[in-house]
Write a structure and sequence with these properties.
Layout: H1 8-22, H2 26-69, H3 81-100, H4 112-125, H5 127-130, H6 136-142, H7 162-176, H8 180-222
């Protein structure tokens, strides 16, 4: 028995079943039947080893991909495959939020995260930020939104409504000399493109993982 892996009762059951099927007569046939039982057990062990070896190799692939991506991928895109997949969900959700927002009534209460996402998307899509002429954090400090304390962080403030977010968009537009509706449209388009890029990066990554899995499978079988 292989300690910790195989059980004596399993071996006994396999051996007894083999001897019962072969029904050996005499000591020679019994010795041969015992040999068959041992070889069958060892063959099962080899099959199990192969299965476990492949499974372990497969489990390592995503970690290996993440290690390789440390030197080739943009951190904002995500390093680990789980981060890349999560980014696909996040960017898609942000795009849906920006598309849905214009239809909301002013009184509609918004989740803090949603309000922050809308305002930050507009902030980062402003021409002066996109062109590198203004720092988004400094620009945010200059934006005053009615009903929101000047020292409050958007992501921490509770009590957002769609109307307050609209006031925030107007404040950002005033600070950047842009039209608030156009600014929101640009932010929505930017979000759509980012969602498509995230999806494309994830699809490329999944193809790479699948390729490594197939290559790993062949190399394990070859051993």
């Amino acid at each position: 028995m292989v300690p910790g892996v195989e059980k004596a009762e399993d071996w006994e059951e396999s051996r007894n079943g083999m001897l019962e099927d072969l029904s050996p007569l005499g000591s020679l046939e019994l010795a041969l039947a015992e040999r068959v039982a041992v070889l069958a057990w060892r063959l099962h062990r080899v099959t199990r080893y192969e299965t476990e070896a492949i499974a372990i190799s497969q489990e390592k692939i995503e970690h290996e991909v993440a290690q390789d991506r440390k030197y080739s991928a943009n951190v904002s895109e995500g390093i680990h495959p789980d981060d890349v997949r999560g980014n696909v969900k996040y960017t898609a959700a942000r795009h849906r939020l920006l598309k849905r927002y214009p239809k909301l009534e002013d009184e509609k209460k918004l989740d803090t995260t949603d309000a922050d996402n809308i305002l930050r998307s507009a902030l980062y899509s402003a021409d002066v930020v996109d062109d590198g002429e203004a720092d988004p954090e400094e620009l945010q400090d200059r934006v005053s939104i009615p009903g929101v304390p000047d020292d409050a962080q958007w992501e921490d403030f509770e009590g957002w409504t769609a109307g307050m977010v609209r006031a925030g968009l107007e404040a950002i537009a005033n600070a950047t000399n842009e039209d608030p509706e156009v600014l929101l449209e640009v932010a929505t388009e930017d979000a759509r493109r980012e969602a498509l890029r995230a999806k494309h990066r994830a699809e490329q990554l999944e193809r790479e993982i699948e390729f490594r899995r197939r290559r790993c499978l062949l190399s394990d079988v070859g051993r």
